[in-house]
Amino acid sequence: MISKRNSLVILISILVLLFTYIGINQLIFREDFELNLLNSPLLPIPETGIFLLSWFIPILELLAVFLLLWSRTYLLGLYLGIFLFIMYTSYSLGILYFASYIPCSCGGMLKFLSWKQQLWVSLGGLMIAILTFYFNKTVKKV
Amino acid sequence: MKSKFLIPVLAMIFATGMSFTTAELGKEQAVDYIRVDNQWMAIPEIDCGQVGPNNCRAKLQDGSVHPIYDIQNLSSLKKTTSTVPFPL
Question: Signal sequence: where (chain B) (predicted)?
Answer without folding.
Answer: 1-23
